[in-house]
Amino acid sequence: MSFAIETNGLTKVFGDLIAVDHIDIKIKEGTINGFIGPNGAGKSTTMKMLIGALRPTDGSGTIKGYPLGSMESKQFLGYSPEHPKFYEDMTAHKYLVYMGMICGLSKQRATARTSELLKWLNIEDFAEKKIRGFSAGMRQKLSLAQSMIHEPEILILDEPTANLDPAGRFSIIENLKELSRENKITVFISSHILAELEKLVDEVTLINHGKIVVESDVTSLKKKISGNRFILKTSDNKKILSDLEARGYIKYGEIDENDVIHVVAEGDESQFKKNITEVILKNDVWLEKFNLETSDLESVFMQLVGEGEEKQEAVIQDNHKSFWRFWK
Length: 328
Hints:
This protein folds into two domains: 3-217, Rossmann fold, CATH 3.40.50.300; 227-319, Alpha-Beta Plaits, CATH 3.30.70. Helices cover 43% and strands 26% of the residues. It contains eleven helices and 15 strands. The chain has helices at 43-51, 71-74, 92-102, 107-120, 136-148, 166-183, 194-200, 218-226, 237-246, 269-283, 297-327, and strands at 3-14, 17-23, 26-28, 32-36, 58-63, 66-67, 77-80, 154-158, 186-190, 203-208, 211-217, 229-234, 250-255, 261-265, 287-292. Helix 3 (92-102) packs across helix 4 and helix 9 packs across helix 10 (269-283).
């Protein structure tokens, strides 16, 4: 399998702070990977190492097989930072043409590409306006255009929908989907708006306290977190729920306001399917609905980060006890 981005033990230390702690990442070519984590988890630092703006303290990585920071790796990359900077007195059009030429495009191609991107991002009406007067959302769109001016194969986007209104965020997400689907672009994107990110990404990489917590495709991750929670609806919900409880087939069950049963089952999905079939046949009722109750990405995030915080607290408490044992 070919990886667009790969790291091995990538680490960044600032004084006493371990910002990124020996992380291993593998991003498949042509996929959209969501990079998520709490504030200060190490997302932006990781991205800056990937583009060569920061040198790792330890570990290594490659972009399309080339070492991080090398000229060969940079030719494949487009990057949009969380807080972009511009030449404020340039117009948007002039700035993008200029950046395109810096990236090696001819003036003719840079001009054509600029027009394409301004239209694609729906900001062509602002082409001849100075950047100094742009709103935060407009600046974010311009940064995204800059990252794509040279038609890179890999986009690294740090909060690209920050400061955009819902319509603007939706537009960016749809554009990135189209870009990935039609051009097989690899996208590594961070965002705090997980409900919208979930609609975009194929896979997620979760980082917390500088360490990778999980790296997985979204469907498998949600299924794993959902575990043995199911929803079902029958022609006689009360009878079925009562029988499931009586037989010890569920740990917990309730009927919601929409007359749907939510249960936490004993055993795995395969076992519960056998159990529910047995109960349905015995009670001679119709099964109208049966599904694994999947979590959304935000629920997954909260559960995994919560587990990480509990482990971190346990380590702190253990170290605290060790400290006092030492002095005793």
